[in-house]
Design brief:
With about 200 residues, this protein is mostly beta strands. The chain has three helices and ten strands. The longest helix is centred in the N-terminal third of the chain and has 13 residues.
Length: about 200
């Protein structure tokens, strides 16, 4: 067994057995509600941005395009991250208290970010919400970045482009950068047909 295999096995054992978080996962043609075990990670965004390939979801239920539940449920669903447009949480997650010792905070440096209202487009949705960016970061710098893969938005609203009546609200949203096709700062938007 190689060192890489041992490291992967250790990572897998650390991911399981943590806090379960309720989520909705939306792709171009798939919408699912489920729970996800965030394991050793402090936040859902940390788990998603530090794993590749498939996400393991528990107690998954297929949803209709408007978010209504169907009868199809699965105890476990493995979902390819490449096919995810965004992952949402309706309510703000309760984070465990921050560790008190200085060593455990080294992986989370305190670099100041500020919320900026943005609109992000995927092939199926127009998403408005706050994105926390570094003070000097430009819109072009934001869209050209490749990391983190899933962009964190707060107080987000996702409107279906196929049916504008379908609107979903999320306290937290993780938008897959590989699914973003356009972005703008929403402070500069003019909506000729609000609502």
């Amino acid at each position: 067994m190689s060192w890489a295999d041992l490291s992967f096995m250790q990572f897998e054992s650390e991911v399981g057995g943590g806090r379960l978080e309720p989520i909705e996962v939306i792709g171009t043609h798939l919408r699912v509600s489920a729970s996800i075990d965030i394991g050793r990670f402090h936040r859902l965004s940390d788990l998603v941005n530090h794993t590749r390939g498939f996400l393991s979801l528990q107690d998954a239920r297929l949803l209709r395009r408007n978010g209504d539940p169907t009868r199809l449920t699965m105890p476990e669903l493995l979902l390819n991250q490449d096919e995810i447009a965004f992952i949402g949480q309706r309510a703000a997650p309760e984070l465990p208290p921050e560790p008190a010792d200085a060593l455990s905070r080294l992986d989370r440096p305190a670099i100041e970010k500020r919320p900026r209202r943005m609109i992000l487009f995927t092939s199926g949705h127009a998403i408005t919400g706050s994105v926390h960016l570094y003070h000097e970061q430009t819109l072009a710098g934001f869209v050209d970045a490749s990391d983190p893969r899933f962009v964190v938005m707060t107080n987000a609203r996702a409107r279906s482009l196929a049916d504008r009546r379908v609107i979903s609200h999320f306290a937290l949203l993780l938008v897959n950068r590989t699914q973003m096709i356009a972005a703008a700062e929403s402070t500069r938007l003019v909506d000729a047909n609000p609502g």
